[in-house]
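EI: anyone free to look at a 293-residue chain?
SC: sure, send it
EI:
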Amino acid sequence: MDGLGRKVLVAAFDGWNDAGEAASAAIAHLRESGAYQPVFSVDPELYFDYQYTRPQTAIDGDGKRVLTWPEATILKPLKPTRSSQLWLLTGVEPARAWQAFAAEFVDVALREDITGFVALGSMMSDVPHTRPISVFAGSDIEQIRSALDLERSTYEGPVGILSVLSHAADAAGIPSASLWASVPHYVAGHTPSPKATLALLDRLEDLTGAPIPRGDLSSQSAAWEASIDAAAADDEEMTEYIRQLERTRDTWDSPEASGDAIAQEFEKYLRRGGSGPGSGDGPSKPGRDDPRR
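SC: here you go
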Protein backbone atom coordinates (compact mmCIF):
# COMPACT_ATOMS: atom_id res chain seq x y z
CA MET A 1 0.00 0.00 0.00
CA ASP A 2 1.68 3.22 -1.17
CA GLY A 3 -1.18 5.71 -1.04
CA LEU A 4 -4.89 6.17 -1.64
CA GLY A 5 -4.93 4.84 -5.20
CA ARG A 6 -6.41 6.38 -8.34
CA LYS A 7 -10.11 6.48 -7.43
CA VAL A 8 -10.55 8.52 -4.24
CA LEU A 9 -13.88 9.35 -2.57
CA VAL A 10 -13.76 12.82 -0.92
CA ALA A 11 -16.42 13.53 1.70
CA ALA A 12 -17.68 16.64 3.51
CA PHE A 13 -20.93 17.33 5.35
CA ASP A 14 -22.86 20.37 6.48
CA GLY A 15 -23.09 20.66 10.24
CA TRP A 16 -20.71 19.91 13.10
CA ASN A 17 -17.81 19.05 10.78
CA ASP A 18 -17.98 22.32 8.82
CA ALA A 19 -16.81 25.47 10.64
CA GLY A 20 -16.91 28.47 8.34
CA GLU A 21 -18.50 26.21 5.70
CA ALA A 22 -14.93 25.50 4.61
CA ALA A 23 -15.28 21.75 4.01
CA SER A 24 -18.66 21.82 2.27
CA ALA A 25 -17.45 24.75 0.14
CA ALA A 26 -14.43 22.67 -0.91
CA ILE A 27 -16.74 19.92 -2.17
CA ALA A 28 -18.96 22.51 -3.87
CA HIS A 29 -15.89 23.98 -5.58
CA LEU A 30 -14.82 20.56 -6.85
CA ARG A 31 -18.32 19.89 -8.12
CA GLU A 32 -18.50 23.23 -9.94
CA SER A 33 -15.03 22.73 -11.44
CA GLY A 34 -15.91 19.52 -13.26
CA ALA A 35 -18.70 17.38 -14.66
CA TYR A 36 -20.26 15.01 -12.12
CA GLN A 37 -23.16 12.59 -12.07
CA PRO A 38 -25.02 11.30 -8.99
CA VAL A 39 -24.70 7.55 -8.56
CA PHE A 40 -26.32 7.02 -5.17
CA SER A 41 -28.36 8.91 -2.56
CA VAL A 42 -29.70 7.65 0.75
CA ASP A 43 -33.38 7.64 1.61
CA PRO A 44 -33.76 10.83 3.72
CA GLU A 45 -36.62 9.32 5.73
CA LEU A 46 -34.16 6.89 7.32
CA TYR A 47 -31.45 9.27 8.49
CA PHE A 48 -32.59 12.87 8.89
CA ASP A 49 -34.58 14.65 11.58
CA TYR A 50 -36.74 17.16 9.71
CA GLN A 51 -37.26 19.27 12.80
CA TYR A 52 -33.49 19.81 12.86
CA THR A 53 -32.76 19.78 9.11
CA ARG A 54 -35.95 20.96 7.49
CA PRO A 55 -36.91 20.46 3.84
CA GLN A 56 -36.77 23.61 1.71
CA THR A 57 -39.55 25.00 -0.48
CA ALA A 58 -39.00 26.94 -3.70
CA ILE A 59 -40.74 27.81 -6.96
CA ASP A 60 -39.29 26.20 -10.09
CA GLY A 61 -38.98 27.63 -13.61
CA ASP A 62 -42.54 26.55 -14.45
CA GLY A 63 -43.98 28.39 -11.48
CA LYS A 64 -44.62 25.22 -9.50
CA ARG A 65 -43.78 24.93 -5.82
CA VAL A 66 -41.33 22.12 -5.07
CA LEU A 67 -39.82 20.65 -1.93
CA THR A 68 -36.14 19.79 -1.61
CA TRP A 69 -35.31 17.23 1.09
CA PRO A 70 -32.06 16.83 3.01
CA GLU A 71 -29.75 14.44 1.22
CA ALA A 72 -26.39 12.70 1.15
CA THR A 73 -25.14 11.73 -2.29
CA ILE A 74 -22.15 10.18 -4.05
CA LEU A 75 -21.17 11.79 -7.34
CA LYS A 76 -18.77 10.37 -9.89
CA PRO A 77 -16.66 12.38 -12.36
CA LEU A 78 -17.72 12.03 -15.99
CA LYS A 79 -14.42 12.89 -17.66
CA PRO A 80 -11.55 10.36 -17.64
CA THR A 81 -8.22 11.58 -16.33
CA ARG A 82 -4.65 10.31 -16.25
CA SER A 83 -4.29 11.39 -12.64
CA SER A 84 -6.35 10.29 -9.64
CA GLN A 85 -10.11 10.59 -9.95
CA LEU A 86 -11.92 12.47 -7.20
CA TRP A 87 -15.37 11.13 -6.45
CA LEU A 88 -17.52 13.24 -4.12
CA LEU A 89 -19.71 12.45 -1.12
CA THR A 90 -21.69 15.46 0.03
CA GLY A 91 -24.76 16.22 2.09
CA VAL A 92 -26.04 16.84 5.58
CA GLU A 93 -24.74 15.05 8.67
CA PRO A 94 -27.40 12.43 9.55
CA ALA A 95 -29.36 12.58 12.79
CA ARG A 96 -29.75 8.83 13.34
CA ALA A 97 -28.65 5.32 12.31
CA TRP A 98 -25.05 6.32 11.62
CA GLN A 99 -23.80 2.74 11.30
CA ALA A 100 -26.39 1.91 8.65
CA PHE A 101 -25.70 5.25 6.91
CA ALA A 102 -21.97 4.50 6.73
CA ALA A 103 -22.58 0.92 5.62
CA GLU A 104 -24.68 2.07 2.67
CA PHE A 105 -21.95 4.36 1.38
CA VAL A 106 -19.16 1.85 1.96
CA ASP A 107 -21.15 -0.75 0.01
CA VAL A 108 -21.43 1.69 -2.91
CA ALA A 109 -17.72 2.54 -2.65
CA LEU A 110 -16.81 -1.16 -2.84
CA ARG A 111 -19.15 -1.67 -5.79
CA GLU A 112 -17.53 1.25 -7.62
CA ASP A 113 -13.97 0.06 -6.85
CA ILE A 114 -13.10 3.13 -4.79
CA THR A 115 -9.45 2.83 -3.70
CA GLY A 116 -9.23 5.53 -1.00
CA PHE A 117 -11.34 7.79 1.18
CA VAL A 118 -10.56 11.35 2.32
CA ALA A 119 -12.70 13.15 4.91
CA LEU A 120 -12.69 16.95 4.79
CA GLY A 121 -13.57 18.89 7.93
CA SER A 122 -13.06 22.31 9.45
CA MET A 123 -12.91 23.28 13.10
CA MET A 124 -13.08 26.47 15.14
CA SER A 125 -9.67 27.11 16.67
CA ASP A 126 -7.64 29.71 18.54
CA VAL A 127 -5.82 30.84 15.37
CA PRO A 128 -5.43 34.24 13.67
CA HIS A 129 -6.98 34.98 10.29
CA THR A 130 -3.80 36.76 9.20
CA ARG A 131 -1.62 33.65 9.07
CA PRO A 132 -1.75 30.60 6.74
CA ILE A 133 -4.59 28.23 7.62
CA SER A 134 -3.32 25.13 9.42
CA VAL A 135 -4.58 21.78 8.13
CA PHE A 136 -4.31 18.64 10.26
CA ALA A 137 -3.69 15.67 7.96
CA GLY A 138 -4.02 12.26 9.59
CA SER A 139 -4.76 8.58 9.16
CA ASP A 140 -5.19 5.59 11.45
CA ILE A 141 -3.38 3.34 8.94
CA GLU A 142 0.36 3.10 9.46
CA GLN A 143 1.19 2.45 5.79
CA ILE A 144 -0.81 5.49 4.69
CA ARG A 145 0.84 7.69 7.31
CA SER A 146 4.26 6.55 6.15
CA ALA A 147 3.52 6.89 2.43
CA LEU A 148 1.87 10.32 2.67
CA ASP A 149 3.69 11.76 5.71
CA LEU A 150 0.54 12.05 7.82
CA GLU A 151 -0.04 12.33 11.55
CA ARG A 152 -1.78 9.90 13.89
CA SER A 153 -4.36 11.39 16.22
CA THR A 154 -4.40 10.14 19.80
CA TYR A 155 -7.81 11.72 20.47
CA GLU A 156 -10.43 9.75 22.42
CA GLY A 157 -13.97 11.09 22.78
CA PRO A 158 -17.09 12.13 20.79
CA VAL A 159 -16.83 12.20 17.00
CA GLY A 160 -18.84 13.24 13.95
CA ILE A 161 -20.03 11.32 10.91
CA LEU A 162 -16.66 11.76 9.15
CA SER A 163 -14.95 9.59 11.76
CA VAL A 164 -17.67 6.96 11.49
CA LEU A 165 -17.32 6.83 7.71
CA SER A 166 -13.51 6.69 7.91
CA HIS A 167 -13.69 3.83 10.41
CA ALA A 168 -16.15 1.92 8.21
CA ALA A 169 -13.99 2.49 5.12
CA ASP A 170 -10.85 1.25 6.88
CA ALA A 171 -12.70 -1.83 8.14
CA ALA A 172 -13.83 -2.61 4.59
CA GLY A 173 -10.29 -2.36 3.21
CA ILE A 174 -10.60 1.16 1.76
CA PRO A 175 -7.74 3.18 3.30
CA SER A 176 -8.77 6.55 4.67
CA ALA A 177 -7.20 9.89 5.56
CA SER A 178 -8.65 13.06 7.06
CA LEU A 179 -7.96 16.76 6.50
CA TRP A 180 -9.15 19.32 9.07
CA ALA A 181 -8.69 23.05 8.55
CA SER A 182 -8.42 25.37 11.58
CA VAL A 183 -10.76 28.35 11.16
CA PRO A 184 -10.47 31.41 13.45
CA HIS A 185 -13.24 30.96 15.99
CA TYR A 186 -14.08 34.65 16.11
CA VAL A 187 -15.35 34.53 12.51
CA ALA A 188 -16.11 30.83 11.89
CA GLY A 189 -19.78 31.05 12.80
CA HIS A 190 -20.58 34.18 10.84
CA THR A 191 -19.11 34.13 7.33
CA PRO A 192 -17.82 31.49 4.91
CA SER A 193 -14.05 31.09 5.09
CA PRO A 194 -12.62 30.82 1.55
CA LYS A 195 -9.08 30.91 2.95
CA ALA A 196 -9.76 27.65 4.82
CA THR A 197 -11.43 26.15 1.76
CA LEU A 198 -8.36 26.98 -0.30
CA ALA A 199 -6.07 25.41 2.32
CA LEU A 200 -8.11 22.18 2.26
CA LEU A 201 -7.97 21.99 -1.54
CA ASP A 202 -4.22 22.65 -1.56
CA ARG A 203 -3.65 19.79 0.88
CA LEU A 204 -6.09 17.51 -0.95
CA GLU A 205 -4.14 17.99 -4.17
CA ASP A 206 -0.90 17.16 -2.35
CA LEU A 207 -2.50 14.05 -0.86
CA THR A 208 -4.12 12.62 -3.98
CA GLY A 209 -2.06 14.01 -6.85
CA ALA A 210 -5.27 15.09 -8.60
CA PRO A 211 -4.99 18.58 -10.16
CA ILE A 212 -7.59 20.92 -8.64
CA PRO A 213 -8.49 24.24 -10.27
CA ARG A 214 -8.57 27.07 -7.69
CA GLY A 215 -10.70 29.52 -9.65
CA ASP A 216 -10.95 32.84 -7.83
CA LEU A 217 -10.46 31.37 -4.35
CA SER A 218 -7.21 33.30 -3.89
CA SER A 219 -8.91 36.64 -4.47
CA GLN A 220 -11.85 35.61 -2.29
CA SER A 221 -9.41 34.68 0.48
CA ALA A 222 -7.68 38.06 0.27
CA ALA A 223 -11.04 39.85 0.38
CA TRP A 224 -12.14 37.74 3.37
CA GLU A 225 -8.96 38.60 5.28
CA ALA A 226 -9.28 42.30 4.42
CA SER A 227 -12.88 42.41 5.62
CA ILE A 228 -11.89 40.94 8.99
CA ASP A 229 -9.00 43.41 9.24
CA ALA A 230 -11.45 46.25 8.70
CA ALA A 231 -13.89 44.95 11.31
CA ALA A 232 -11.13 44.35 13.88
CA ALA A 233 -9.70 47.85 13.35
CA ASP A 234 -12.77 49.31 15.07
CA ASP A 235 -12.44 47.00 18.10
CA GLU A 236 -9.34 47.62 20.19
CA GLU A 237 -9.90 44.53 22.31
CA MET A 238 -10.29 42.29 19.26
CA THR A 239 -7.19 43.80 17.65
CA GLU A 240 -5.10 42.99 20.71
CA TYR A 241 -6.52 39.49 20.90
CA ILE A 242 -5.60 38.84 17.26
CA ARG A 243 -2.06 40.05 17.99
CA GLN A 244 -1.85 37.52 20.83
CA LEU A 245 -2.95 34.76 18.46
CA GLU A 246 -0.36 35.90 15.91
CA ARG A 247 2.41 35.69 18.49
CA THR A 248 1.31 32.18 19.46
CA ARG A 249 1.12 31.06 15.82
CA ASP A 250 4.54 32.52 15.05
CA THR A 251 5.93 30.54 17.97
CA TRP A 252 4.36 27.36 16.55
CA ASP A 253 5.92 28.07 13.17
CA SER A 254 9.38 28.68 14.57
CA PRO A 255 12.07 26.01 13.95
CA GLU A 256 12.06 25.18 17.66
CA ALA A 257 8.33 24.45 17.78
CA SER A 258 6.98 20.93 18.17
CA GLY A 259 5.59 19.25 15.07
CA ASP A 260 2.64 18.09 17.17
CA ALA A 261 1.17 21.59 17.61
CA ILE A 262 -1.56 21.27 14.96
CA ALA A 263 -2.49 17.78 16.15
CA GLN A 264 -2.81 19.09 19.70
CA GLU A 265 -5.08 21.90 18.52
CA PHE A 266 -7.22 19.38 16.61
CA GLU A 267 -7.61 17.17 19.68
CA LYS A 268 -8.35 20.17 21.91
CA TYR A 269 -11.14 21.12 19.52
CA LEU A 270 -12.67 17.64 19.63
CA ARG A 271 -12.54 17.56 23.42
CA ARG A 272 -14.57 20.77 23.46
CA GLY A 273 -17.24 18.84 21.58
CA GLY A 274 -16.65 20.74 18.35
CA SER A 275 -18.12 23.94 19.74
CA GLY A 276 -14.94 25.94 19.74
CA PRO A 277 -14.15 28.77 22.11
CA GLY A 278 -16.52 31.69 22.08
CA SER A 279 -19.01 29.90 19.86
CA GLY A 280 -22.12 31.81 20.84
CA ASP A 281 -23.93 34.46 18.81
CA GLY A 282 -21.56 37.09 17.51
CA PRO A 283 -17.85 37.53 18.17
CA SER A 284 -17.27 36.47 21.76
CA LYS A 285 -15.88 38.65 24.51
CA PRO A 286 -13.45 37.44 27.16
CA GLY A 287 -15.09 35.28 29.79
CA ARG A 288 -14.17 33.04 32.69
CA ASP A 289 -13.12 30.14 30.45
CA ASP A 290 -12.02 32.23 27.49
CA PRO A 291 -8.30 32.20 26.56
CA ARG A 292 -8.37 35.97 26.26
CA ARG A 293 -9.07 36.37 29.96
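EI: Strands lie at 7-14, 36-41, 56-59, 65-68, 72-77, 85-92, 116-125, 135-138, 176-184.
SC: 👍
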